[in-house]
């Protein structure tokens, strides 16, 4: 279960509060910078190389846009918060501190940092003291930049592989339905098995899973803009709203209707 917050006063920002008890997320990305807070329970965070980190109550997690990850309950009930913001806006607020914390997925353990972001999110959901949000976000980023993360999941840095896969990912992103692996492999000059391994190494996902993730990233953008569920599902090539509902829920741990609000 969960709830979402958005406001026309801060169009660059959205937030959620959620509680989960079972595996709820496939590997996925966000098109926005994210700050996560673990309120209670524990969870397993995995990144692009499938390395796993245990998250505990009080942890603050920084996830730059485009970094593949998945968080799921370790055991029992897990309660968390997520603040999502346009990355360009965050960079303008945080300056050098924002640049520093965007080097990879980072986990911090500091009560003062947790309390700052927790208080900020509480005020967002109460629509209270909104004028302080920008200053508090900036200070929270500066506090994180002064700390050494207890864990950091570095992204893959392989420019040659990225360049080789660029035609494949561009082709996939423009598709409304799954591509034929042999055709995609030919674009990259690889066998189909080489392509699957290379795409997993570069993105953390298979080619088709990557395309599905990009569809959900676009779906979230469309729903935030107020597009209807039916229109969003049709534009993105889902077979029907039921199919859209299942895929969206697996990536967002919420239904499209709950997310749209």
UniProtKB/TrEMBL annotation:
InterPro entries cross-referenced by the UniProt entry: AraC-bd (IPR003313), AraC_XylS_family_regulators (IPR050204), Homeodomain-like_sf (IPR009057), HTH-like (IPR037923), HTH_AraC (IPR018060), HTH_AraC-typ_CS (IPR018062), RmlC-like_jellyroll (IPR014710)
Keyword check for Transcription regulation: yes
Name this protein carries in UniProt: HTH-type transcriptional repressor of iron proteins A
Residue span(s) of domain HTH araC/xylS-type: 163-261
GO MF entries: DNA-binding transcription factor activity; sequence-specific DNA binding
Superkingdom of origin organism: Bacteria
Gene3D superfamilies tied to this protein: Homeodomain-like, Jelly Rolls
Organism expressing this protein natively: Microbacterium azadirachtae
Keyword DNA-binding part of the UniProt annotation: yes
UniProt entry keywords in alphabetical sequence: Activator, DNA-binding, Transcription, Transcription regulation
